[in-house]
Amino acid sequence: QVQLVESGGGLVQTGGSLRLSCAASGRTFSSFAMGWFRQAPGKEREFVAANTWSGGYTYYAGSVKGRFTISRDNAKNTVYLQMSSLKPEDTAVYYCAAIRSGYSGSYRVPAVYDYWGQGTQVTVSS
């Protein structure tokens, strides 16, 4: 069992930056692939970024590529999402999620993730 707790959300102006953190419990964090998703009011949950257990492979949604960076510190059982050049359309609840080791399909589909955090609100004002 893995528990995920996000933090770091808040209110920021257009063009600003935020860093989200997702702390994971459990001793097998390093074997999990991790992802970030977001969900705006009235919209479906959408993929933002993901990286593999070693951090060697990373994936981004086209809408955030070049502005967001996913990273992880396995020693701290934490995955991060550094967000820069934020836009009002980035406003959403952001969730981190984990996939157990052995998965080899697409990381962009919410249904493939085994564990989810409770989410943290990010609001970008214009």
What key phrases describe this protein's structure?
126 residues, 11 strands, 0% helix, 7-stranded mixed sheet, 4-stranded antiparallel sheet
Give the SSE layout.
Blueprint: E1 4-7, E2 10-13, E3 18-24, E4 33-39, E5 46-51, E6 58-60, E7 68-73, E8 78-83, E9 92-99, E10 115-116, E11 120-125
Describe the 3D structure.
It is a single chain. This protein has strands spanning 4-7, 10-13, 18-24, 33-39, 46-51, 58-60, 68-73, 78-83, 92-99, 115-116, 120-125. The chain has 126 residues and is an all-beta fold. Strands 2, 4, 5, 6, 9, 10 and 11 form a 7-stranded mixed beta sheet that branches. Strands 1-3-8-7 form a 4-stranded antiparallel beta sheet, with no helix packed on it. β4 (33-39) and β5 form a beta hairpin. It starts with a strand and ends with a strand.
Low-pLDDT segments, ≥5 res: none
Q: In total, how many beta strands?
A: 11
Helical residue percent band: under 10%
Continuous helix count: 0
Mean pLDDT: 93
Structural class: mainly beta
* Quaternary status: single chain
Strand content: over 45%
SSE string:
EEEEEEEEEEE
Distance between the termini: 40 Å
Radius of gyration: 13 Å
